[in-house]
Amino acid sequence: MSTQTPNLTMSGSARRRIKDKLASVGVTTGGILVLVALLLIFFYLLYVVKPVFESAKVEPVSQFSLSLSGEPVLLGMDDQQDIGYRFSRQGGMDFFSIKPQSGYPVGQVILHQQLDEAVTSVSITASATPMVVFGLDNGTARVVQPGFLITYPNDKRTTQAVVKSPLGDEPLVLDEQGRAITGLAFEAKSDKRLFAVQTVDDQLALVAQEGEENFLSGEVEWQTNHYSMPAMNGHIDQLLLTPDLRYLLVRGGNLLSVYNISDLSNIKLRSAIEVNEPGAQVTGISLLSGASSIMVTNDNGVISQWFEVVRNGQREFTRIRDFQAEGSVRLLAAEHSRKGFVTLSGDHQLGLFHATGETRLLSQSLGDVAVTSLALAPRNNGLLVERQGGFDYYRVKNHHPEVTWSALWSKVWYEGYPEPQFVWQSTSASDDFEGKFSLVPLAFGTLKAAAYAMLFAVPIALAGAIFAGYFMSAGMRKVVKPTVEIMAALPTVILGFLAGLWLAPFIEQHLPGVALCLILLPLSMLAAAFAWHQMPRRIKERVPDGWQALILVPVVLLVGYGCFAFSPLLEDWFFNGNARGFITHDLGIRFDQRNALIVGIAMGFAVIPTIFSIAEDAVFSVPKHLTQGSLALGATPWQTLSRVVILTASPGIFSAVMMGLGRAVGETMIVLMATGNTPVMDFSIFEGLRTLSANIAVEMPESEVGSSHYRILFLAAFVLFIFTFIFNSVAEFVRQRLRDKYSSM
Amino acid sequence: MKKWINSGSPWIWLTGGAVSLSLVAVIGLLVLIGWRGLVYFWPHTIYQWQLDENGQQSVLIGELNDSEPVPTARLEASGRQFPEGTPEVLERYLVKTGNREFVPLDFRWVLETDIQGRETPKDLAVIERTTNGNFYGTVTQLLEQGQVVAGDLHSQLEARLARVQDLNDRTRDLQKGAIGAINYQLEKLRLKERRLELDHALTEAAKQELAQARQALNDEYHLHEKELFDLRAQAERDTLVVKDMRGVEVQIPMAQVLDVAWPNDMSLLQKIGHWFHQIGKFVSDDPREANTEGGVFPAIFGTVFMVLLMTVIVTPLGVVAAVYLHEYAGKNALTKIIRIAVINLAGVPSIVYGVFGLGFFVYVLGGASTSCSTPRPCRAPPSVHPG
């Protein structure tokens, strides 16, 4: 392509030379800018995607010495992580400053309160703003909650720590006989509060408060009821209530008993399972955020996740997966509103895990002093650790724990699912919802749509290209080629619109006609060819060679019209007037109106001009001396075509197919409008699909900037980019090779 | 026969068939789009049906929109009763009745057996309005200030329609032109005040000056407002009286009327003229009534403007790249890579460009450029709201 400037001595002025030089630099820069543009897209997509795969980090921020009395049961922070709090088993409640932004020196106690009564048991609710219930030795309990009042005097945020009593200042009577409460569990909903109470002699009882709103005053009136539990065998180590108040979990040693308490007058033991790892002892159980999963910790470091799975119509608690921490697990704290958790094992070993992703994100030693307790910040971005003699405060960088390479591309067992599956379900109306980001159904949908489109387009486009490039007369070729190429100029949104709103219902009503067309069209072409062959010679001679395509146009029109006109009759004869019903009921195949068949046809149309145009060029530019040599040696035109032309043009034909595939994979509007966009994985031609491109178009406007969802959509775009990059580059490479070959022939 | 097959001729015909199939598909598609789109503007006949639904007589006026066969059994299952000897399949017609304010839905299904008779009276008119869509009926009278106007109805109507349209145009010009300019000035004053306030330069003198400017603008506004109300009052002078399918005479203010046509009274030539007129209106009008009526001019404008803008930005780059590849590039690996990059830029799916554009131009560059360059305090980029 390049023209070598003759090496003449520049006799012009220096200005001319400078101008020439400038032009050369400018134009070269312009050429290279093309490459830069492509690289910019590539690297920007990578840049957005990258944080998803970054590993979690826990970095120390500050340390301070502060000794507080009692054994810690609850540690926590406010939203801004300015003030920490610590509640002790003995009824002590302390608030202290973590950062100078709180207005106090770091490590100073801001507020201290102490219960006067003797505390015999403690329970903490599972929530980002937990409530603490102290069971007392006289059968009563106090419920307190750490609270923060935020005010803005002089435009400056100040946080004030308070201890709230959400259930009133009076102690609640939980045991009417006044026995000491040795074990306790508590959870509350807006209209119901439930206490599970264990008294001295391992007896269990439930105390429920049910609220009813007074219509006149709008106040909620609470009514307290006591319920007895079925007799327990053995010792009770731990009590836990699920926040939805459906289950009571009772652990005695390694035995976990699950009671269904949704109907308090009819409490049933659902299951009793040994939950320990063989050869190890259970150290505790806790609930993950969302309260569907039970995490069981063992003294050998194994943490197992259990949730209910439907098996044979029965819901059973099933061991789903295990995690390995280092050393005996002493404490497990669930992340708030995510499915992650942190563990404290051994003396001072921190573990950071994500349950659904089945990953250990981090395992790190927290210094060499024994750690007594730890807590995550409400937004999961800070960690407060209590060790002997003081506290450590860490910053946690863990933005996308749920996204791992394996979670994106392999089956994941989500809570409530009967088995591991590929699921794409990015959003829902509920807050507890866990995003399910498997790219497999989308990649599958993309390839399925492309495959059906290619199935439709490749035979027609290649056969047409061969005919147009080899048999057609030059004059006709001049008309036919641009006509077919017009279709490439048609916006795909029009094709998609027609496919979704006109073609899909049309095909649904004329299914037998479609099948008939598929059989009759090629047969009728052959029949027409044979009829032409039998025609008297003088008629045949009047029509020049290469006009077969025009002769066949009325045949195609007539047969096509006939097929669809006959379709209702066929439907009446064979399918009792309802072909769709026959497919769904008698064959048992699901049928969507907008299905892969529609996409295949509509996207096939969009791809035909691409393949046709490039393949036709390749066939047409096969050097004439090759074909003429073959014909001169006595080969028939068909033999010449199949042995010489196609063989020579095959790299070009291959590149045409690759280009078509690249276009089919990236096509958006047609699949968006004609597929129904259900991310299912099924090869069936009668079912819908969702492609990567349509998924981006559907979900991009509603995804939060910087969230995992947003970044995964960018990843989908990146995958698409790579797909098409490979197809296009291979095609172009082959074409360049071919061009060189032809030019040397 | 065998010789014919051996010659390979059937396969050649099959490849020829592929070409004809492609041609039929391309041309069929274009014809389908054209037909479906353009037939909408054709002045359809307005029918007047005599209906008898279980002994209830009524008149239905409207355009025939669609028809479909329905099995009688399905209708019987839904509670309808038919006499013996009713055919197995009945035809059902979809009628566009218009008159949105008087009927629950402006489309209605009518069963073949309910129809007693069908006529096409020449005086049935379709009235295009600014609100509530089309109105179908017979124009009986024209009122001026409540008094019946004498003379030929058609020519009177035409003259008064032109007058009302002229008044409406002037109203719009006034609103968009003079009043819009005043609003723009007021907004500039507000911004000026805000800038002074942020610069702590809002002195009493400046305040007074601003108040004076505001007062002058408000006075000017009141003048225009009076003119506007005057124009509106003039437009409300005439009223059209139309008898609809219930036999009720309905008064339609001329100010709401956009067009009146009598399709049943048109010759073919007139129909073609009307068809072109309707297409012209579709292309040049603004949309009305939440995009269900009116034209698509803003969408056309947006498309053309975007394409022009894109061309201006991108053409130099494209031409320079082409010149480079053809004239300057050496025969080396870099040229090959650039050629592959060109092909890829053409082949990368548009959705990837969309994602890149949203992320890079809107969130990165857009966020950086708007955060501190306005006379307001720095704030988060306006684009953090998805959408």
UniProtKB/TrEMBL annotation, chain A:
<feature type="transmembrane region" description="Helical">
    <location>
        <begin position="21"/>
        <end position="47"/>
    </location>
</feature>
<feature type="transmembrane region" description="Helical">
    <location>
        <begin position="484"/>
        <end position="507"/>
    </location>
</feature>
<dbReference type="Pfam" id="PF00528">
    <property type="entry name" value="BPD_transp_1"/>
</dbReference>
<dbReference type="InterPro" id="IPR000515">
    <property type="entry name" value="MetI-like"/>
</dbReference>
<protein>
    <submittedName>
        <fullName>ABC transporter permease subunit</fullName>
    </submittedName>
</protein>
<feature type="transmembrane region" description="Helical">
    <location>
        <begin position="449"/>
        <end position="472"/>
    </location>
</feature>
<feature type="domain" description="ABC transmembrane type-1">
    <location>
        <begin position="443"/>
        <end position="731"/>
    </location>
</feature>
<feature type="transmembrane region" description="Helical">
    <location>
        <begin position="710"/>
        <end position="731"/>
    </location>
</feature>
<keyword id="KW-1133">Transmembrane helix</keyword>
<dbReference type="InterPro" id="IPR035906">
    <property type="entry name" value="MetI-like_sf"/>
</dbReference>
<feature type="transmembrane region" description="Helical">
    <location>
        <begin position="513"/>
        <end position="535"/>
    </location>
</feature>
<feature type="transmembrane region" description="Helical">
    <location>
        <begin position="641"/>
        <end position="661"/>
    </location>
</feature>
<feature type="transmembrane region" description="Helical">
    <location>
        <begin position="596"/>
        <end position="620"/>
    </location>
</feature>
<keyword id="KW-0813">Transport</keyword>
<feature type="transmembrane region" description="Helical">
    <location>
        <begin position="547"/>
        <end position="570"/>
    </location>
</feature>
<keyword id="KW-0812">Transmembrane</keyword>
<comment type="similarity">
    <text>Belongs to the binding-protein-dependent transport system permease family.</text>
</comment>
<keyword id="KW-0472">Membrane</keyword>
TrEMBL record, chain B:
<keyword id="KW-1133">Transmembrane helix</keyword>
<feature type="coiled-coil region">
    <location>
        <begin position="200"/>
        <end position="234"/>
    </location>
</feature>
<feature type="transmembrane region" description="Helical">
    <location>
        <begin position="296"/>
        <end position="325"/>
    </location>
</feature>
<keyword id="KW-0175">Coiled coil</keyword>
<feature type="transmembrane region" description="Helical">
    <location>
        <begin position="337"/>
        <end position="366"/>
    </location>
</feature>
<dbReference type="InterPro" id="IPR035906">
    <property type="entry name" value="MetI-like_sf"/>
</dbReference>
<feature type="transmembrane region" description="Helical">
    <location>
        <begin position="12"/>
        <end position="35"/>
    </location>
</feature>
<protein>
    <recommendedName>
        <fullName>Phosphate transport system permease protein PstA</fullName>
    </recommendedName>
</protein>
<keyword id="KW-0472">Membrane</keyword>
<keyword id="KW-0812">Transmembrane</keyword>
